[in-house]
Amino acid sequence: MQEIVITGFGGQGIVLTGRIVAKAAALGDRKQSTLVQSYGPEARGGACSAQVIISDKAIHYPYITTPDILVCMSQGAYDKFYPTLRETGTLIIDHDLVKPKKLKGHEVLSIPATRIAGELGKKMIANIIMIGFITSITGAISLKASIGTVKSSVPKGTEELNISAFNKGYEYGLALLKGRKKKASGYREAGT
User: Which pTM does this prediction carry?
Assistant: First the structure.
């Protein structure tokens, strides 16, 4: 079982991100999944989160108190939710929007999702970039299920842009994992 909390502020597509991850797990990968979403008192700009549980077995309780994976796309979300991250959990952040502090030894993985989205011409696709990153980094959902769910979940006419965004996040994650693997094996480039 993997418990994932995705957080940010209203307008970033946090709930859509959670919906895509949960739907990819359930419909694409044929696993059990739940989605619980939460908004702050203000819609756009207020705090929001999506809680996704993915399991091979029945899920008896859909709420998450200590996530295995915490995805933060805003500083306020990080400040609010970081204390809940499981001791052995993984923190995933939007590199340009979240500056972690007082880390408790958690693995931290970051991607400049909003910057990459800006380079693609639409900051509103940062969440789709993050889904690609989550897919490659966590293995919680398969590549095939993720791509299929992204295609069916975005507005008609934007599929190509969104798949391009997804691929950017996915490739960024693969490159990060490859770099970490080389570093762990003691690989050193000439001159370092």
Answer: 0.90
